[in-house]
Design brief:
The chain has 274 residues and is an alpha/beta fold. It folds into two domains: 112 residues, 2-Layer Sandwich (Nucleotidyltransferase, domain 5); 132 residues, ATPase, nucleotide binding domain (Nucleotidyltransferase, domain 5). It is 38% helix and 24% strand. It has eight helices and eleven strands. The strands form three sheets. Strands 3-2-1-4-5 form a five-stranded mixed beta sheet. A four-stranded mixed beta sheet has the order 8-7-6-9, sandwiched between helices. A hairpin with a 2-residue loop joins β10 and β11. The chain is globular and about 65 Å long. The N and C termini lie close together (12 Å).
């Protein structure tokens, strides 16, 4: 078998996709502090799930925040390009991508499956997964429950602060006043959706719109974004792996162009041959 691998080391999560005749396997795990050790571990796990050996792998592309920490990769490609490629593979009709990650949010404009332009918020936690984590902790609820709870809201409150610290204080204040938690969360999602929408609108939002990243798993946030953009967005079956999938697709292109590689790599404590 001639397989390729895409590795996406994000600020909070690391994703790996093994590509052969379609997606053979994917693995998602927390990034942690030791990027290199984790990269070895998740790639080995992904190969095991795909029932392949290192000798079956012809090319590896790394992307994401920590892509320089994948020493066994053949090439490094920016996350913007990889997200665009992965989304276009899953949704050929996609024109706009909204990616809400752990530490940043991005808007990507696609044309004929290629990235035309993009915008990114990487200076402030508002509008990111970390922002939601902080609020979940303040409210004493699980992050994964926020979306379902917010959909029960009847009178969403207005969250005016865009700073994480002040928004947290505002949320706690509403809670102490007896405002139902579902109304607080719905208001929070609307505030995040407004911030993200304003950023992405600079590109000119065109359908189909695809939402990716951890934020895409939050039904309340997706609903709030749908109200902003005016039509239902598309969400991948697993919205966290689009970057790794795009990296794997690039790896397949380079493998065909350069010829299948069979070189020895330093892969952890063992030798990794491809």
């Amino acid at each position: 078998m001639d397989a390729v691998i895409g590795v996406d080391i994000g600020s909070t999560m690391t994703k790996v996709v093994v590509l052969g005749d379609g997606i053979l396997s994917s693995v998602i795990g927390p990034t942690g502090a030791e990027h290199r050790r984790l990269a070895y571990k998740v790639v080995e796990e992904a190969m095991s799930r795909a029932s392949i050996s290192p000798q079956d792998v012809s090319y590896i592309v790394a992307t994401g925040y920590g892509r320089i920490n994948v020493p066994f990769a053949d090439r490094q490609i920016t996350e913007i390009s990889c997200h665009g490629r992965g989304v276009s593979y899953l949704f050929p009709s996609a024109r706009t991508v909204i990616d809400i990650g752990g530490q940043d949010s991005k808007g990507i404009k696609l044309e004929d499956g290629r990235v035309r332009e993009f915008v990114m918020n990487d200076k402030c936690a508002a509008g990111t997964g970390r922002f939601l984590e902080v609020i979940a902790e303040a409210l004493g609820i699980k992050l994964e429950d926020m979306g379902d709870i917010s959909l029960k809201a009847k009178n969403p409150v207005k969250i005016s602060s865009t700073c994480t610290i002040f928004a947290e204080m505002e949320v706690v204040s509403h809670l102490s006043e007896g405002v139902p938690i579902e109304d607080i969360l719905a208001g929070l999602h609307e505030a995040i959706a407004s911030r993200v929408y304003s950023m992405v609108a600079k590109l000119g939002i065109e359908r189909d719109v695809v939402i990716t990243g951890g934020g895409a798993k939050n039904k309340g946030l997706v609903f709030a974004l749908e109200k902003k953009i005016g039509f239902p967005p598309l969400v991948p079956p697993e919205p966290l792996i689009t970057g790794a999938l795009g990296a794997a697709l690039f790896a397949r292109d380079f493998s065909k162009k350069e010829g299948a590689r069979r070189k020895e790599r330093d892969f952890g404590e063992t030798k990794f041959f491809t």
